[in-house]
Specification:
mainly beta, 7 strands
Length: about 90
């Protein structure tokens, strides 16, 4: 479940996403080079840890949308893929 809103004072979008399990993501951002990019924290309540997190949504040439999430790994000092998905518009049924 997520709560999404635009903050006109800060000129940014914000999302708080909570899983049915042990994760939540709290991040904010806006359009960067034609893609929605949000950065913030991923919280793992099971291990009581927080990680730097980045999500982006970009339109593909075929009209689909790529949703790409990365989590920063303190041990390696690098970002790792957390989720990489593609969303396609469903056709309207009559």
């Amino acid at each position: 479940m997520s709560l999404n809103y635009y903050n006109p004072v800060r000129n940014e979008w914000r999302q708080l996403w909570v899983s049915a399990g042990e994760y939540s993501i709290d991040y904010s951002g806006g359009l960067v080079d034609g893609a929605m990019v949000m950065v913030g924290k991923l919280y793992n309540y099971g291990s009581d840890e927080a990680f730097d997190f980045r999500g982006s949504w970009s339109e593909n040439g075929d009209g689909s949308v790529r949703q790409f999430f990365e989590q920063y790994n303190d041990e390696t000092g690098m970002c790792e893929v957390w989720f990489d998905g593609r969303y396609v518009r469903q056709s309207v049924r009559e």
